[in-house]
Amino acid sequence: MSDYTISAIGHIQSPYKQKFAIPRQPRLVPQAKAKLIFAPDFNREEFVRGLDEFTHIWLLFRFHETADKGYSAMVRPPRLGGNERKGVFATRATFRPNAIGMSAVKLEGIEYKNGQLSLLLAGIDLLDGTPIIDIKPYLPYSDSMPDASAGFADTRPETQMTVEFSPQAIEFVNSQTQYPDLHDFIANVLKQDPRPAYKKQKDGEQSYGMTLYNYNIRWQVNGEHNVVTSIEKN
């Protein structure tokens, strides 16, 4: 066995400023837009020449916020309600021996502006600041296997969660122009029901907060209904 040193080729600028509320897989929230900002050693257009011929790409990244916490041989997947243990290699959990993750995301464009090379991405599921260690084009004929089975995660996670915006929240969404998809973005994040599994089993109204982009968003959950009560700028 050998040890390897891997340097990040760039990092993600993401609307997700905290782990809470990040979708548990890519492309579940298509309105989640992000940028991959290339590091100085890779900040040249030659590195991505021809990449614009592909609609989707694979990102290999490091779970930078949990890497120092070590790994576990057994984990509790959220898809199983946090009640059943599986081997870490049978899941996509963050507590992995090398803290490496992967995401297949939509490539919406390549930007070279003011001397900075960036990729414009959508359907992202990565925390702001995530180090990217490699990029590979997504190949439908090879990477898509319709006859594959996926064990306990064989179907897209669905909930019955509904989302309502208070008048104050609607007013805020309509008054800002920076993010045209902000309403749908927030709604689709909440439809994924980001609460911890043990919280979902509790009755009664619960209040939560999250940060998306530079906004503090507060909402309440009662049963399977969310009400966005307020949105404020940080």
Helicity level:
10-25%
Topology as a string of helices (H) and strands (E): EEEEEEEEHEHHHEEE
* Major sheet size, sense and barrel closure: 6 strands, antiparallel, barrel
What is the count of β-strands?
12
Could you report the average pLDDT, rounded to the nearest whole number? 93
Report the radius of gyration as a whole number of Å: 19 Å
Q: Which stretches of 5+ consecutive residues score pLDDT under 50?
A: none
Oligomer: single chain
Rounded to the nearest angstrom, the distance between the terminal CA atoms is 47 Å
Structure class: mainly beta
**Strand fraction:** 25-35%
Q: What spatial order of strands do you see in the largest sheet?
A: 1-2-7-6-3-8
Helix run count: 4
Shape: globular
Account of the protein in words:
This protein has helices at residues 140-143, 167-175, 182-191, 197-200; strands at residues 10-13, 33-38, 56-62, 74-75, 86-87, 100-113, 116-122, 131-137, 162-165, 206-212, 215-222, 225-233. A six-stranded antiparallel barrel has the order 1-2-7-6-3-8. Strands 9-12-11-10 form a four-stranded mixed β-sheet. Strands 4-5 form a two-stranded antiparallel sheet. It is built from four helices and twelve strands. The protein is mainly beta.
